[in-house]
Amino acid sequence: MLNSQLSHLPALEPGSVWLVGAGPGDPGLLTLLAAKGLSQADVIVHDALVNEECLALARPEAVVEYAGKRGGKPSAKQRDISLRLVELARAGKRVLRLKGGDPFVFGRGGEEALTLVEHNIPFRIVPGITAGIGGLAYAGIPVTHRDINHAVTFLTGHDSSGIVPDRIDWDAIGRGSPVIVMYMAMKHIAEISANLIAAGRPPTEPVAFVCNAATGRQQVLETTLGEAPEAIAATGLEPPAVVVVGEVVRLRASLDWLGALAGRRLQPDPFRRSGKVVI
Question: Does 69 participate in catalysis according to the annotation?
Fold first, then answer.
């Protein structure tokens, strides 16, 4: 049944590139179109955040190329990655560029697509579930809840130079966004926390770090904005992580469905308890 459904979806054609989101980790979160692309691609160029279990869906003849970029580690330059996609497509290959999360949410998919346009390479965007939504869902944290917030802000914790972006208006975000979801922010959490507290956020506001989200290695740290830098140092948790600031973090006490599968007793009223927990 599944194969017949996939047959009606668009095909990955020779000489073209698909920019595909792999989701936050769990291969079950791949879209049908992503699965079809993986089954047809001649070459798969993937980044560091793609779960290897997703690559298992590639056809046996496919060539798999790693093009990961990790902060502080030797990485391919973005321009070289983009031009590699052009080179492969011009060679008549069916090219699938596989990215963790969604290619257009802090995934540099826009940069790569613009390079393809520059060189007249046909392409398709296949959205994926971004970690700022799907990864938090796997931790039992909703990014919106009508009793808590009617807005959410997504931001990146560092720019292309590896430092906290100076174009972020921390005062405006601190005042105006009840929930803040941050990508690539763990290494700079001391500076970011200080910025948000200076903007008026209370040091006691709940914060969660979700590391290796939606994988078998997932770990979640619940703490507060004021204690976050020391808590991260004490636990030794490392990126990749998505960070969320706001009262929605308290809902994890009731909505940690993965924890419930492992025996955790969920709380009917999550606002009766708070604190720092690493699971």
Answer: yes
Q: In the annotation, is 1 catalytic?
A: no
CA dist 193 and 189 (Å) reads 6
Please pick, among 26, 47, 102, 256, the residue that the annotation labels catalytic.
Answer: 47
For residues 57 and 27, the answer to whether their CB atoms sit within 8 Å is: yes
Closest CA to 138 of 265, 231, 26, 36: 26
Residues 137, 146, 253: CA angle, nearest 5 degrees: 45
Residue 166: active-site member: no
pTM of the model: 0.92
Number of residues written out for the chain? 279
> pLDDT averaged over the chain?
93
- 258's tokens: 């993965």
Q: Using 50, 70 and 90 to split pLDDT, how confident is the model at 278?
A: very low
